[in-house]
């Protein structure tokens, strides 16, 4: 690309600018309107209760007011000894032909004993029969009805099994006692048809349910820990926030020391590695078998064999020597660029100090991302529950209508009951045959795509706002006197007023790549069981390529947004100018990137590590001064991990602002070098420290 030329009218971020990428702005508005329409349609047709509440075999919600199930909030399968279920949805299947038509019934509570309907009826004890009736369909009231007819009409289950409630569902209460699988206190049970079955037949079906039950108990203990430690967790997060702020302030004074200490430590570690390899090489001299060459030894699965060869340690020593020499040569030739990177990092700390509100701006971006996530999640739930109840014909004997769709309201007067007297119209699943139901998968795809687009737009808005604010600091000739009164608010208003289209354009490109990656991950998940190695290899290559493409686009977008904030050009022009500017200074880019990456990693490690260690000693009662203050916990790792994760997010939020500041000042610095020469007509805008480092000064002015 062509270097930038001097422009006497350029004094920093351009205020007299026009709207850019209007077409993309219109597309974004139309897409948001369509997204709102999809949400309204989903909210109109969807019913999240299908996810939360169980239903009976007629598709009625358990515990729903105004229905016979109003006082029956739980669901159970009375007929089938084979049960499989997970929270939020439950599917009952029976491997036995006697239960080819399983039924779900809403109950007020789960059964707590073994009992069959035949035994309850034959004993003629009102208590047992009355107890059994609460597990029958609500319409069943005639306790004198012939038991064969009751079981044939599926008014009541053939048997009851001791069950445990979980997510409003009843699952067999399976437990192990001295290695023996039991349900209740028995290892066998009567299936209600005169056959004894082993409780292990229930094990496979209820295994997942028991895992979830244990998970729920674990979740309850974790919740208890949060209730007694939440204020200490908040104190830990406040400490992390203060530590992050102090670290950013200290970077102004200690950035150079940190970088050079890191460089010296790397050189010393490599030097020790060379010394250790030489000592091992010398120690093996004269030992039997140590002089065998690597080629003669060949490949060995036990890698420890190679450590007994002198040639191995010689190779290690040569490699480390080469790396050491390369690093030293790079330091000699790139020392000035490293000093520039350190100076820019110090300058970024000053810029953040003059625009302290920038440290709070990530909260705005976080709020917008939370809105995107909440809208996407709620729309996805409503779309997935938009299906209607589908009823099908179930029967015990041969029937030509078996499996066909039916309507419960008109089923009793239809021809089906005449030809198939034992047929029943029962709830089968949720589905639908309308145009809306056929295109549900398309709407879900659109929901995912819009989530990525809007989330990337929110991130882009945050980046261009911070870039505009920090650019106004760099291009202020007299810092901070020439800065605008409210740089962050000015940059935010310019971004929304003029560059919504450009931000939407960059976010759209990134969203397309991310949707493709999600699709590839889905295909990879579906192909795990396949034996087509070529397809798996091709898919892995595509995943790798699109991962690299996403990283490159994020890098390009970030720098394009900086150019948009400064010059007000459209997205393509800004991306091209930023890319060419960076390519003209590729060495400086590489050095600055690695130096800042190290400092940010060091800062995050220092903050998260120190706060995490402090939390560990506090919650494990190892600090004697506050030993009695720490709350008693079921799992002390719960608040500790929460503090560690929260500290990392807080540190990441602070350093993301700092990183954007460094990148913005760096691009402005490169522009300054190309536009100006330090003369009275073309003075530099860089800080005195950078001028001194470059041995440059504004001609006609004393060197600061």
Give a quick account of the main beta sheet: strands, pairing sense, barrel closure.
3 strands, antiparallel
How is the largest sheet built, in terms of strand order?
Answer: 14-13-15
Percent range for β-strand residues: 5-15%
What is the tally of beta strands? 15
Radius of gyration: 35 Å
Number of helices: 20
Average the pLDDT over all residues and give the rounded result.
79
Per the principal axes of the C-alpha atoms, what is the gross shape? extended
Structural category = mainly alpha
What proportion of the residues is helical, as a percent range?
55-70%
Q: What is the first-to-last residue Cα distance?
A: 33 Å
Function: Choline transporter.
Main location: membrane
Catalytic activity: choline(out) + n H(+)(in) = choline(in) + n H(+)(out); ethanolamine(out) + n H(+)(in) = ethanolamine(in) + n H(+)(out)
Family: Belongs to the CTL (choline transporter-like) family.
Write a brief structural summary.
It is a multi-pass membrane protein. The protein has 704 residues and is mostly helical.
